[in-house]
Design a protein that fits this description.
The structure holds 2 protein chains of 2 kinds. Chain A is mainly alpha-helical. Chain A has 14 helices and no strands. The radius of gyration of chain A is 25 Å and the shape is flat. Chain A: It is a multi-pass membrane protein.
Protein backbone atom coordinates (compact mmCIF):
# COMPACT_ATOMS: atom_id res chain seq x y z
CA UNK A 1 0.00 0.00 0.00
CA UNK A 2 1.19 3.50 0.44
CA UNK A 3 4.14 4.05 2.66
CA UNK A 4 1.77 4.60 5.56
CA UNK A 5 -0.76 1.88 5.17
CA UNK A 6 1.68 -0.90 4.56
CA UNK A 7 4.88 -0.12 6.30
CA UNK A 8 6.58 2.47 8.40
CA UNK A 9 7.94 1.07 11.58
CA UNK A 10 7.91 4.71 12.41
CA UNK A 11 5.96 6.69 14.89
CA UNK A 12 4.89 4.95 17.99
CA UNK A 13 2.55 7.06 20.02
CA UNK A 14 4.63 9.43 22.12
CA UNK A 15 4.47 8.32 25.70
CA UNK A 16 2.81 10.57 28.17
CA UNK A 17 2.59 10.34 31.89
CA UNK A 18 -0.12 7.86 32.68
CA UNK A 19 -2.21 7.35 35.69
CA UNK A 20 -1.96 4.03 37.44
CA UNK A 21 -5.63 3.54 36.62
CA UNK A 22 -4.83 3.85 32.95
CA UNK A 23 -2.03 1.38 33.31
CA UNK A 24 -4.15 -1.15 35.11
CA UNK A 25 -6.79 -0.77 32.42
CA UNK A 26 -4.22 -1.48 29.80
CA UNK A 27 -3.08 -4.49 31.70
CA UNK A 28 -6.64 -5.80 31.75
CA UNK A 29 -6.87 -5.26 28.04
CA UNK A 30 -3.66 -7.15 27.59
CA UNK A 31 -4.95 -10.03 29.61
CA UNK A 32 -7.92 -10.16 27.28
CA UNK A 33 -5.94 -9.99 24.08
CA UNK A 34 -2.87 -11.99 25.05
CA UNK A 35 -4.40 -15.47 25.01
CA UNK A 36 -5.68 -14.98 21.48
CA UNK A 37 -2.27 -13.71 20.40
CA UNK A 38 -0.48 -16.61 22.01
CA UNK A 39 -2.72 -19.17 20.34
CA UNK A 40 -2.27 -17.43 17.02
CA UNK A 41 1.49 -17.28 17.37
CA UNK A 42 1.60 -20.90 18.43
CA UNK A 43 -0.41 -22.10 15.45
CA UNK A 44 1.59 -19.92 13.11
CA UNK A 45 4.97 -20.56 14.68
CA UNK A 46 4.77 -24.25 15.46
CA UNK A 47 4.82 -25.42 11.83
CA UNK A 48 7.86 -23.24 11.25
CA UNK A 49 9.75 -24.81 14.15
CA UNK A 50 8.67 -28.23 13.04
CA UNK A 51 9.97 -27.61 9.54
CA UNK A 52 13.31 -26.57 11.00
CA UNK A 53 13.35 -29.76 13.07
CA UNK A 54 12.50 -31.89 10.03
CA UNK A 55 15.35 -30.25 8.17
CA UNK A 56 17.76 -31.82 10.64
CA UNK A 57 16.43 -35.32 10.02
CA UNK A 58 16.16 -37.77 7.15
CA UNK A 59 12.34 -37.88 7.23
CA UNK A 60 10.40 -39.19 4.24
CA UNK A 61 6.79 -38.34 3.45
CA UNK A 62 5.73 -42.00 3.44
CA UNK A 63 6.35 -42.50 7.15
CA UNK A 64 7.09 -39.47 9.24
CA UNK A 65 7.63 -41.47 12.42
CA UNK A 66 10.72 -43.22 11.06
CA UNK A 67 13.33 -40.53 11.16
CA UNK A 68 16.87 -40.07 12.33
CA UNK A 69 18.67 -36.97 13.39
CA UNK A 70 21.29 -36.18 10.78
CA UNK A 71 22.49 -32.76 11.91
CA UNK A 72 23.30 -30.34 9.13
CA UNK A 73 23.66 -33.06 6.49
CA UNK A 74 20.67 -31.78 4.54
CA UNK A 75 22.31 -28.38 4.33
CA UNK A 76 26.02 -28.87 3.88
CA UNK A 77 26.38 -32.63 3.61
CA UNK A 78 27.51 -34.29 0.41
CA UNK A 79 23.99 -34.16 -0.99
CA UNK A 80 22.98 -31.09 0.97
CA UNK A 81 20.82 -28.40 -0.51
CA UNK A 82 23.64 -25.87 -0.49
CA UNK A 83 25.65 -28.19 -2.72
CA UNK A 84 22.80 -28.87 -5.10
CA UNK A 85 23.27 -27.15 -8.45
CA UNK A 86 19.50 -27.27 -9.02
CA UNK A 87 18.93 -25.27 -5.84
CA UNK A 88 21.38 -22.59 -6.91
CA UNK A 89 19.78 -22.44 -10.31
CA UNK A 90 16.43 -21.93 -8.56
CA UNK A 91 18.00 -19.16 -6.48
CA UNK A 92 19.39 -17.54 -9.62
CA UNK A 93 16.02 -17.85 -11.37
CA UNK A 94 14.20 -16.29 -8.44
CA UNK A 95 16.64 -13.40 -8.13
CA UNK A 96 16.60 -12.77 -11.86
CA UNK A 97 12.82 -12.91 -11.85
CA UNK A 98 12.55 -10.54 -8.87
CA UNK A 99 14.99 -7.96 -10.15
CA UNK A 100 13.67 -7.83 -13.71
CA UNK A 101 9.97 -7.97 -12.89
CA UNK A 102 10.13 -5.46 -10.03
CA UNK A 103 12.17 -3.04 -12.15
CA UNK A 104 9.78 -3.26 -15.08
CA UNK A 105 6.72 -3.03 -12.86
CA UNK A 106 8.10 0.05 -11.13
CA UNK A 107 8.91 1.88 -14.35
CA UNK A 108 5.69 0.95 -16.10
CA UNK A 109 3.67 1.54 -12.95
CA UNK A 110 5.15 5.00 -12.58
CA UNK A 111 4.24 5.77 -16.18
CA UNK A 112 0.67 4.62 -15.73
CA UNK A 113 0.40 6.51 -12.44
CA UNK A 114 1.59 9.73 -14.09
CA UNK A 115 -0.99 9.26 -16.83
CA UNK A 116 -3.76 8.62 -14.34
CA UNK A 117 -2.69 11.61 -12.27
CA UNK A 118 -3.58 14.11 -14.97
CA UNK A 119 -7.09 15.25 -14.16
CA UNK A 120 -9.82 13.99 -16.47
CA UNK A 121 -13.31 12.66 -16.30
CA UNK A 122 -12.38 9.12 -17.24
CA UNK A 123 -9.72 8.98 -14.57
CA UNK A 124 -12.00 7.76 -11.81
CA UNK A 125 -13.27 5.00 -14.04
CA UNK A 126 -9.77 4.11 -15.19
CA UNK A 127 -8.51 3.92 -11.64
CA UNK A 128 -10.97 1.17 -10.85
CA UNK A 129 -10.59 -0.57 -14.22
CA UNK A 130 -6.83 -0.61 -14.04
CA UNK A 131 -6.98 -2.99 -11.10
CA UNK A 132 -8.72 -5.75 -13.04
CA UNK A 133 -5.55 -7.73 -13.84
CA UNK A 134 -4.53 -7.59 -10.22
CA UNK A 135 -7.91 -8.79 -9.01
CA UNK A 136 -7.96 -11.83 -11.27
CA UNK A 137 -6.61 -14.97 -9.57
CA UNK A 138 -3.02 -15.71 -10.61
CA UNK A 139 -4.07 -19.13 -11.75
CA UNK A 140 -6.61 -17.60 -14.12
CA UNK A 141 -4.15 -15.15 -15.61
CA UNK A 142 -1.51 -17.83 -15.91
CA UNK A 143 -3.93 -20.09 -17.78
CA UNK A 144 -5.19 -17.24 -19.89
CA UNK A 145 -1.72 -16.29 -21.04
CA UNK A 146 -0.81 -19.91 -21.63
CA UNK A 147 -3.70 -20.15 -24.05
CA UNK A 148 -2.81 -16.92 -25.76
CA UNK A 149 0.84 -17.80 -26.11
CA UNK A 150 0.30 -21.35 -27.30
CA UNK A 151 2.43 -22.11 -30.35
CA UNK A 152 -0.30 -23.88 -32.30
CA UNK A 153 -3.42 -21.83 -31.91
CA UNK A 154 -2.38 -18.96 -29.63
CA UNK A 155 -3.68 -15.55 -30.58
CA UNK A 156 -0.30 -13.86 -30.07
CA UNK A 157 1.34 -16.04 -32.69
CA UNK A 158 -1.55 -15.51 -35.08
CA UNK A 159 -1.28 -11.78 -34.54
CA UNK A 160 2.48 -11.61 -34.94
CA UNK A 161 2.33 -13.76 -38.05
CA UNK A 162 -0.37 -11.73 -39.70
CA UNK A 163 1.66 -8.60 -39.01
CA UNK A 164 4.60 -10.29 -40.69
CA UNK A 165 6.82 -9.94 -37.64
CA UNK A 166 7.58 -13.64 -37.43
CA UNK A 167 7.39 -16.34 -40.12
CA UNK A 168 6.82 -19.35 -37.90
CA UNK A 169 5.00 -19.67 -34.58
CA UNK A 170 7.10 -19.18 -31.45
CA UNK A 171 6.93 -21.69 -28.60
CA UNK A 172 6.75 -19.09 -25.86
CA UNK A 173 6.39 -21.58 -23.05
CA UNK A 174 8.53 -24.47 -24.27
CA UNK A 175 11.39 -22.61 -25.94
CA UNK A 176 14.26 -22.22 -23.44
CA UNK A 177 15.09 -18.78 -24.79
CA UNK A 178 11.57 -17.49 -24.41
CA UNK A 179 10.04 -19.14 -21.38
CA UNK A 180 11.64 -16.84 -18.82
CA UNK A 181 10.63 -13.81 -20.81
CA UNK A 182 7.08 -15.17 -20.93
CA UNK A 183 6.88 -15.53 -17.15
CA UNK A 184 8.08 -11.95 -16.73
CA UNK A 185 5.57 -10.74 -19.30
CA UNK A 186 2.67 -12.25 -17.39
CA UNK A 187 3.86 -11.08 -13.99
CA UNK A 188 4.28 -7.55 -15.31
CA UNK A 189 0.78 -7.73 -16.77
CA UNK A 190 -0.65 -8.80 -13.47
CA UNK A 191 1.22 -6.63 -11.01
CA UNK A 192 1.93 -3.33 -12.75
CA UNK A 193 -1.59 -2.02 -12.04
CA UNK A 194 -1.12 -2.50 -8.34
CA UNK A 195 2.24 -0.70 -8.41
CA UNK A 196 0.64 2.06 -10.44
CA UNK A 197 -2.04 2.47 -7.81
CA UNK A 198 0.47 2.74 -4.98
CA UNK A 199 2.40 5.36 -6.90
CA UNK A 200 -0.76 7.21 -7.81
CA UNK A 201 -1.57 7.48 -4.13
CA UNK A 202 1.91 8.95 -3.61
CA UNK A 203 1.56 11.33 -6.54
CA UNK A 204 -1.65 12.72 -5.14
CA UNK A 205 0.17 13.64 -1.98
CA UNK A 206 2.46 16.07 -3.77
CA UNK A 207 1.17 19.54 -2.81
CA UNK A 208 -0.15 21.36 -5.85
CA UNK A 209 1.57 24.64 -4.88
CA UNK A 210 4.90 22.98 -5.72
CA UNK A 211 3.69 22.56 -9.28
CA UNK A 212 2.21 26.04 -9.41
CA UNK A 213 5.45 27.63 -8.25
CA UNK A 214 7.33 25.68 -10.89
CA UNK A 215 4.88 26.78 -13.56
CA UNK A 216 5.18 30.41 -12.59
CA UNK A 217 8.94 30.08 -12.86
CA UNK A 218 8.57 28.41 -16.23
CA UNK A 219 10.40 25.24 -15.26
CA UNK A 220 10.32 22.66 -18.07
CA UNK A 221 8.14 19.59 -17.53
CA UNK A 222 10.98 17.13 -17.38
CA UNK A 223 12.76 19.14 -14.72
CA UNK A 224 9.59 19.44 -12.70
CA UNK A 225 9.42 15.68 -12.71
CA UNK A 226 13.05 15.06 -11.84
CA UNK A 227 13.39 17.84 -9.28
CA UNK A 228 9.99 17.99 -7.63
CA UNK A 229 7.85 14.95 -8.26
CA UNK A 230 10.44 12.22 -8.10
CA UNK A 231 12.15 13.25 -4.85
CA UNK A 232 8.78 13.66 -3.16
CA UNK A 233 7.39 10.29 -4.17
CA UNK A 234 10.65 8.36 -3.88
CA UNK A 235 10.05 7.04 -0.35
CA UNK A 236 6.67 5.62 -1.35
CA UNK A 237 8.15 4.15 -4.52
CA UNK A 238 10.89 2.45 -2.53
CA UNK A 239 8.41 0.98 -0.09
CA UNK A 240 6.30 -0.34 -2.95
CA UNK A 241 9.40 -1.86 -4.54
CA UNK A 242 10.46 -3.58 -1.34
CA UNK A 243 7.02 -5.08 -0.86
CA UNK A 244 6.88 -6.26 -4.42
CA UNK A 245 10.36 -7.72 -4.09
CA UNK A 246 9.39 -9.63 -0.93
CA UNK A 247 6.41 -11.00 -2.77
CA UNK A 248 8.47 -11.83 -5.86
CA UNK A 249 11.04 -13.76 -3.85
CA UNK A 250 8.39 -16.30 -2.90
CA UNK A 251 6.80 -16.50 -6.36
CA UNK A 252 5.01 -19.79 -6.85
CA UNK A 253 1.57 -19.92 -8.52
CA UNK A 254 2.52 -18.26 -11.75
CA UNK A 255 5.62 -20.32 -12.44
CA UNK A 256 4.11 -23.56 -11.23
CA UNK A 257 0.98 -23.22 -13.35
CA UNK A 258 2.71 -22.00 -16.50
CA UNK A 259 5.83 -24.11 -16.63
CA UNK A 260 5.37 -26.65 -13.84
CA UNK A 261 8.74 -27.99 -12.66
CA UNK A 262 10.77 -26.87 -15.67
CA UNK A 263 14.33 -26.27 -14.56
CA UNK A 264 14.58 -23.18 -16.74
CA UNK A 265 12.14 -21.19 -14.66
CA UNK A 266 11.96 -23.07 -11.37
CA UNK A 267 11.85 -20.65 -8.45
CA UNK A 268 12.91 -21.38 -4.87
CA UNK A 269 9.31 -21.97 -3.79
CA UNK A 270 8.68 -24.35 -6.68
CA UNK A 271 11.88 -26.21 -5.84
CA UNK A 272 10.82 -26.60 -2.21
CA UNK A 273 7.38 -27.91 -3.16
CA UNK A 274 8.90 -30.37 -5.60
CA UNK A 275 11.24 -31.79 -2.97
CA UNK A 276 8.55 -32.00 -0.31
CA UNK A 277 5.62 -33.28 -2.32
CA UNK A 278 6.87 -34.84 -5.57
CA UNK A 279 10.09 -36.38 -4.27
CA UNK A 280 8.70 -36.89 -0.75
CA UNK A 281 12.05 -35.85 0.74
CA UNK A 282 10.75 -34.19 3.88
CA UNK A 283 14.16 -33.78 5.51
CA UNK A 284 15.88 -32.35 2.48
CA UNK A 285 12.83 -30.37 1.41
CA UNK A 286 12.53 -28.86 4.88
CA UNK A 287 16.17 -27.84 4.71
CA UNK A 288 15.56 -25.99 1.46
CA UNK A 289 12.39 -24.49 2.94
CA UNK A 290 14.39 -23.25 5.90
CA UNK A 291 16.99 -21.69 3.63
CA UNK A 292 14.19 -20.00 1.68
CA UNK A 293 12.73 -18.73 4.94
CA UNK A 294 16.12 -17.34 5.99
CA UNK A 295 16.44 -15.52 2.69
CA UNK A 296 13.12 -13.77 3.35
CA UNK A 297 14.08 -12.98 6.95
CA UNK A 298 17.44 -11.56 5.85
CA UNK A 299 15.80 -9.42 3.23
CA UNK A 300 13.22 -8.12 5.70
CA UNK A 301 15.82 -7.42 8.36
CA UNK A 302 17.95 -5.61 5.80
CA UNK A 303 14.99 -3.49 4.84
CA UNK A 304 14.28 -2.67 8.48
CA UNK A 305 17.89 -1.70 9.13
CA UNK A 306 17.82 0.46 6.03
CA UNK A 307 14.65 2.35 7.00
CA UNK A 308 15.87 2.84 10.55
CA UNK A 309 19.14 4.33 9.34
CA UNK A 310 17.33 6.56 6.93
CA UNK A 311 14.97 7.79 9.58
CA UNK A 312 17.82 8.58 11.92
CA UNK A 313 19.71 10.31 9.14
CA UNK A 314 16.88 12.65 8.27
CA UNK B 1 0.63 23.98 -28.99
CA UNK B 2 -1.40 21.18 -27.56
CA UNK B 3 -2.68 20.34 -31.01
CA UNK B 4 0.73 20.03 -32.57
CA UNK B 5 1.26 16.49 -33.64
CA UNK B 6 4.93 16.17 -32.90
CA UNK B 7 6.85 12.95 -33.27
CA UNK B 8 7.16 12.72 -29.52
CA UNK B 9 3.43 12.91 -29.12
CA UNK B 10 2.91 10.23 -31.75
CA UNK B 11 5.35 7.99 -29.94
CA UNK B 12 3.48 8.51 -26.69
CA UNK B 13 0.20 7.57 -28.36
CA UNK B 14 1.78 4.53 -29.97
CA UNK B 15 3.12 3.43 -26.60
CA UNK B 16 -0.28 3.99 -25.01
CA UNK B 17 -2.01 1.97 -27.69
CA UNK B 18 0.45 -0.86 -27.19
CA UNK B 19 -0.06 -0.84 -23.43
CA UNK B 20 -3.83 -0.80 -23.89
CA UNK B 21 -3.56 -3.76 -26.26
CA UNK B 22 -1.30 -5.61 -23.82
CA UNK B 23 -3.89 -5.17 -21.10
CA UNK B 24 -7.14 -5.55 -22.95
CA UNK B 25 -6.38 -8.32 -25.43
CA UNK B 26 -6.33 -11.18 -22.90
CA UNK B 27 -9.60 -10.05 -21.35
CA UNK B 28 -11.18 -9.61 -24.76
CA UNK B 29 -10.12 -13.03 -26.02
CA UNK B 30 -11.29 -14.72 -22.85
CA UNK B 31 -14.69 -13.07 -22.88
CA UNK B 32 -15.45 -13.56 -26.58
CA UNK B 33 -14.20 -17.15 -26.65
CA UNK B 34 -16.43 -18.06 -23.73
CA UNK B 35 -19.48 -17.05 -25.80
CA UNK B 36 -18.49 -18.99 -28.90
CA UNK B 37 -19.54 -22.48 -29.86
CA UNK B 38 -16.80 -25.04 -30.45
CA UNK B 39 -17.45 -24.91 -34.22
CA UNK B 40 -17.15 -21.18 -34.13
CA UNK B 41 -13.78 -21.46 -32.37
CA UNK B 42 -12.47 -23.99 -34.86
CA UNK B 43 -13.53 -22.09 -37.94
CA UNK B 44 -13.23 -18.50 -36.97
CA UNK B 45 -10.46 -16.14 -36.15
CA UNK B 46 -9.56 -15.96 -32.47
CA UNK B 47 -9.96 -12.22 -32.55
CA UNK B 48 -13.36 -12.14 -34.21
CA UNK B 49 -16.58 -11.72 -32.30
CA UNK B 50 -18.78 -14.78 -31.88
CA UNK B 51 -21.06 -15.46 -34.87
CA UNK B 52 -23.92 -15.97 -32.51
CA UNK B 53 -23.51 -15.25 -28.81
CA UNK B 54 -23.93 -18.61 -27.19
CA UNK B 55 -24.27 -19.13 -23.44
CA UNK B 56 -23.88 -22.90 -23.63
CA UNK B 57 -20.28 -22.88 -22.46
CA UNK B 58 -21.26 -20.86 -19.42
CA UNK B 59 -24.05 -23.24 -18.49
CA UNK B 60 -21.72 -26.17 -18.88
CA UNK B 61 -18.92 -24.51 -16.93
CA UNK B 62 -21.28 -23.77 -14.07
CA UNK B 63 -23.17 -27.04 -13.85
CA UNK B 64 -21.69 -29.97 -15.76
CA UNK B 65 -18.05 -29.51 -16.77
CA UNK B 66 -15.67 -32.25 -15.65
CA UNK B 67 -12.90 -31.58 -13.17
CA UNK B 68 -11.00 -34.83 -13.04
CA UNK B 69 -13.56 -37.57 -12.55
CA UNK B 70 -16.31 -35.38 -11.13
CA UNK B 71 -18.65 -33.74 -13.61
CA UNK B 72 -20.62 -31.22 -11.59
CA UNK B 73 -19.22 -28.03 -13.05
CA UNK B 74 -17.79 -25.19 -11.03
CA UNK B 75 -20.81 -24.40 -8.92
CA UNK B 76 -19.94 -26.59 -5.92
CA UNK B 77 -16.39 -25.29 -5.84
CA UNK B 78 -17.62 -21.74 -6.25
CA UNK B 79 -19.65 -22.08 -3.07
CA UNK B 80 -16.71 -23.79 -1.36
CA UNK B 81 -14.68 -20.69 -2.07
CA UNK B 82 -17.44 -18.45 -0.77
CA UNK B 83 -17.74 -20.51 2.41
CA UNK B 84 -13.99 -20.31 2.87
CA UNK B 85 -13.42 -16.67 1.93
CA UNK B 86 -16.21 -14.85 3.73
CA UNK B 87 -15.54 -16.16 7.26
CA UNK B 88 -11.77 -16.00 6.82
CA UNK B 89 -11.92 -12.39 5.65
CA UNK B 90 -14.25 -11.31 8.45
CA UNK B 91 -12.39 -13.09 11.22
CA UNK B 92 -8.92 -12.03 10.13
CA UNK B 93 -10.05 -8.44 9.69
CA UNK B 94 -11.60 -8.29 13.14
CA UNK B 95 -8.61 -9.89 14.82
CA UNK B 96 -6.39 -7.51 12.86
CA UNK B 97 -8.36 -4.50 14.09
CA UNK B 98 -7.97 -5.46 17.75
CA UNK B 99 -4.33 -6.49 17.32
CA UNK B 100 -3.53 -3.32 15.46
CA UNK B 101 -5.11 -1.27 18.20
CA UNK B 102 -3.18 -3.01 20.94
CA UNK B 103 0.10 -2.87 19.04
CA UNK B 104 -0.32 0.81 18.20
CA UNK B 105 -0.78 1.53 21.91
CA UNK B 106 2.22 -0.50 22.79
CA UNK B 107 5.26 1.58 23.58
CA UNK B 108 8.36 -0.39 24.09
CA UNK B 109 11.82 -0.72 22.75
CA UNK B 110 11.28 -3.91 20.83
CA UNK B 111 8.59 -2.51 18.57
CA UNK B 112 11.00 -2.78 15.66
CA UNK B 113 11.41 -6.46 16.34
CA UNK B 114 7.66 -6.91 16.45
CA UNK B 115 7.34 -5.04 13.21
CA UNK B 116 9.95 -7.26 11.56
CA UNK B 117 8.09 -10.29 12.84
CA UNK B 118 4.87 -9.02 11.30
CA UNK B 119 6.57 -8.37 7.98
CA UNK B 120 8.06 -11.85 7.96
CA UNK B 121 4.60 -13.17 8.77
CA UNK B 122 3.24 -11.29 5.78
CA UNK B 123 5.78 -12.59 3.33
CA UNK B 124 6.56 -16.03 4.64
CA UNK B 125 6.67 -18.47 1.71
CA UNK B 126 3.89 -20.90 2.53
CA UNK B 127 5.92 -23.88 1.37
CA UNK B 128 7.88 -23.44 4.58
CA UNK B 129 4.94 -24.38 6.79
CA UNK B 130 3.07 -26.63 4.40
CA UNK B 131 3.76 -30.06 5.80
CA UNK B 132 3.54 -29.44 9.55
CA UNK B 133 0.39 -27.41 8.92
CA UNK B 134 -1.14 -30.36 7.11
CA UNK B 135 -0.29 -32.54 10.12
CA UNK B 136 -1.75 -29.98 12.51
CA UNK B 137 -4.98 -29.83 10.53
CA UNK B 138 -5.09 -33.61 10.60
CA UNK B 139 -4.76 -33.70 14.38
CA UNK B 140 -7.48 -31.07 14.73
CA UNK B 141 -9.72 -33.15 12.49
CA UNK B 142 -9.81 -30.35 9.94
CA UNK B 143 -7.89 -31.98 7.11
CA UNK B 144 -9.62 -31.56 3.76
CA UNK B 145 -12.33 -29.33 5.16
CA UNK B 146 -13.34 -25.77 4.45
CA UNK B 147 -13.03 -25.00 8.17
CA UNK B 148 -9.38 -26.02 8.02
CA UNK B 149 -8.76 -23.66 5.13
CA UNK B 150 -10.49 -20.86 7.02
CA UNK B 151 -8.21 -21.47 10.00
CA UNK B 152 -5.05 -21.42 7.89
CA UNK B 153 -6.08 -18.27 6.04
CA UNK B 154 -7.00 -16.50 9.28
CA UNK B 155 -3.63 -17.34 10.79
CA UNK B 156 -1.54 -16.23 7.87
CA UNK B 157 -3.80 -13.31 6.98
CA UNK B 158 -3.66 -11.79 10.42
CA UNK B 159 -0.10 -10.53 9.93
CA UNK B 160 -1.27 -8.33 7.09
CA UNK B 161 -4.43 -7.09 8.77
CA UNK B 162 -2.57 -6.32 12.00
CA UNK B 163 -0.01 -4.35 10.04
CA UNK B 164 -2.72 -2.41 8.19
CA UNK B 165 -4.62 -1.48 11.32
CA UNK B 166 -1.53 -0.67 13.33
CA UNK B 167 -0.25 1.73 10.71
CA UNK B 168 -3.66 3.30 10.45
CA UNK B 169 -4.19 3.74 14.19
CA UNK B 170 -0.74 5.22 14.61
CA UNK B 171 -1.86 8.06 12.34
CA UNK B 172 -5.04 8.80 14.30
CA UNK B 173 -4.41 12.08 16.12
CA UNK B 174 -3.37 11.50 19.70
CA UNK B 175 -5.75 14.21 20.91
CA UNK B 176 -8.74 12.05 20.05
CA UNK B 177 -7.58 9.25 22.27
CA UNK B 178 -6.46 11.62 25.03
CA UNK B 179 -9.79 13.41 25.04
CA UNK B 180 -11.48 10.06 25.41
CA UNK B 181 -9.25 9.15 28.34
CA UNK B 182 -9.98 12.42 30.10
CA UNK B 183 -13.67 11.66 29.73
CA UNK B 184 -13.03 8.37 31.45
CA UNK B 185 -13.23 6.05 28.48
CA UNK B 186 -11.60 2.68 29.04
CA UNK B 187 -9.52 0.57 26.71
CA UNK B 188 -12.49 -0.95 24.89
CA UNK B 189 -14.62 2.18 24.93
CA UNK B 190 -11.82 4.03 23.18
CA UNK B 191 -11.61 1.26 20.63
CA UNK B 192 -15.31 0.95 19.92
CA UNK B 193 -16.40 4.57 20.32
CA UNK B 194 -13.42 6.52 19.05
CA UNK B 195 -11.26 4.39 16.79
CA UNK B 196 -13.72 2.08 15.06
CA UNK B 197 -15.92 4.92 13.78
CA UNK B 198 -12.95 6.44 11.93
CA UNK B 199 -11.66 3.08 10.70
CA UNK B 200 -13.87 2.87 7.62
CA UNK B 201 -11.13 3.40 5.04
CA UNK B 202 -8.78 0.85 6.53
CA UNK B 203 -11.58 -1.71 6.88
CA UNK B 204 -12.22 -1.40 3.18
CA UNK B 205 -8.54 -1.79 2.35
CA UNK B 206 -8.30 -4.80 4.62
CA UNK B 207 -11.41 -6.54 3.38
CA UNK B 208 -10.47 -6.06 -0.27
CA UNK B 209 -6.91 -7.15 0.32
CA UNK B 210 -7.90 -10.23 2.27
CA UNK B 211 -10.67 -11.14 -0.12
CA UNK B 212 -8.28 -11.02 -3.06
CA UNK B 213 -5.58 -12.98 -1.29
CA UNK B 214 -7.85 -15.68 0.07
CA UNK B 215 -10.15 -16.13 -2.89
CA UNK B 216 -7.20 -16.25 -5.27
CA UNK B 217 -5.10 -18.60 -3.17
CA UNK B 218 -4.02 -21.75 -4.92
CA UNK B 219 -1.33 -23.41 -2.83
CA UNK B 220 -3.25 -23.85 0.44
CA UNK B 221 -6.26 -25.05 -1.49
CA UNK B 222 -4.35 -27.62 -3.47
CA UNK B 223 -2.53 -28.99 -0.44
CA UNK B 224 -5.08 -28.79 2.38
CA UNK B 225 -8.33 -29.50 0.58
CA UNK B 226 -8.49 -32.49 -1.69
CA UNK B 227 -11.79 -33.50 -3.27
CA UNK B 228 -15.01 -32.16 -1.83
CA UNK B 229 -13.75 -29.03 -0.13
CA UNK B 230 -11.60 -27.75 -2.99
CA UNK B 231 -11.77 -24.04 -3.63
CA UNK B 232 -12.53 -22.86 -7.13
CA UNK B 233 -8.93 -22.01 -8.08
CA UNK B 234 -7.91 -25.63 -7.61
CA UNK B 235 -11.00 -26.90 -9.41
CA UNK B 236 -10.25 -24.61 -12.32
CA UNK B 237 -6.75 -25.99 -12.61
CA UNK B 238 -8.16 -29.53 -12.62
CA UNK B 239 -10.79 -28.63 -15.16
CA UNK B 240 -8.30 -27.11 -17.54
CA UNK B 241 -5.86 -29.99 -17.11
CA UNK B 242 -8.52 -32.68 -17.59
CA UNK B 243 -7.36 -34.25 -20.81
CA UNK B 244 -10.19 -36.60 -21.66
CA UNK B 245 -12.25 -35.83 -24.75
CA UNK B 246 -12.25 -32.71 -26.84
CA UNK B 247 -10.59 -29.62 -25.46
CA UNK B 248 -13.41 -27.16 -24.88
CA UNK B 249 -11.79 -23.79 -24.80
CA UNK B 250 -15.08 -21.99 -24.46
CA UNK B 251 -15.89 -23.91 -21.28
CA UNK B 252 -12.37 -23.35 -19.93
CA UNK B 253 -12.62 -19.64 -20.52
CA UNK B 254 -16.11 -19.39 -19.02
CA UNK B 255 -14.89 -21.26 -15.93
CA UNK B 256 -11.90 -18.97 -15.62
CA UNK B 257 -14.15 -15.94 -15.74
CA UNK B 258 -16.47 -17.48 -13.17
CA UNK B 259 -13.47 -17.99 -10.90
CA UNK B 260 -12.45 -14.37 -11.31
CA UNK B 261 -15.90 -12.78 -11.01
CA UNK B 262 -16.20 -12.40 -7.23
CA UNK B 263 -12.95 -10.46 -6.85
CA UNK B 264 -13.86 -8.33 -9.83
CA UNK B 265 -17.22 -7.69 -8.25
CA UNK B 266 -15.62 -6.66 -4.97
CA UNK B 267 -13.38 -4.24 -6.84
CA UNK B 268 -16.25 -2.77 -8.79
CA UNK B 269 -18.30 -2.18 -5.67
CA UNK B 270 -15.53 -1.05 -3.37
CA UNK B 271 -12.62 -0.16 -5.66
CA UNK B 272 -13.19 3.55 -5.31
CA UNK B 273 -13.02 3.31 -1.54
CA UNK B 274 -9.93 1.16 -1.84
CA UNK B 275 -8.00 3.94 -3.55
CA UNK B 276 -9.43 6.45 -1.11
CA UNK B 277 -8.48 4.24 1.84
CA UNK B 278 -4.95 3.89 0.58
CA UNK B 279 -4.66 7.63 0.21
CA UNK B 280 -6.32 8.31 3.56
CA UNK B 281 -3.77 6.15 5.31
CA UNK B 282 -1.02 8.22 3.83
CA UNK B 283 -2.60 11.66 4.12
CA UNK B 284 -2.59 11.51 7.85
CA UNK B 285 1.02 10.38 8.05
Amino acid sequence: MTSQTLTSAAPVRPSSAESSLQRSRQRTAWLLVAPALVVLLAIAGWPLLRTIWFSLTNAQLGDLTQLQFVGLDNYIGENGVLRDAAWWSAVANTLRFSVISVTLETLLGLGVALLLNTPSRVRTLLRAAVLVPWAIPTIVSAKMWSWMLNDQYGVINVLLQSLGLIDHPLAFIADPDLTFFTIILVDVWKTTPFMALLMLAALQMVPSDCYEAARVDGVPRLRVFSHITLPLILPAVLVAMVFRALDALRVFDLIYVMTSNSRLTKSMSVYVREQLVDFQQVGFGSASATVLFLVIVLFTAGYMAFTRRRMQGV
Amino acid sequence: MANKLSIGRLLVYAALALVALYYLLPLYVMLTTSFKTLDDIRQGNLLSLPHAWDGGAWAKAWASACTGIECGGMKGFFWNSVKMTVPAVLISTMIGAVNGYVVSMWRFKGSDALFTLLLVGCFIPFQVVLLPMAQLLGWLGLANTTAGLVLVHVIYGTAFTTLFFRNFYVTVPDELVKAGRIDGAGFWTIFFRILLPVSGPIFVVCVIWQFTQIWNDFLFGVVFAAGEAQPITVALNNLVNTSTGVKEYNVDMASAIIAALPTLFVYMVAGRYFVRGLTAGAVKG
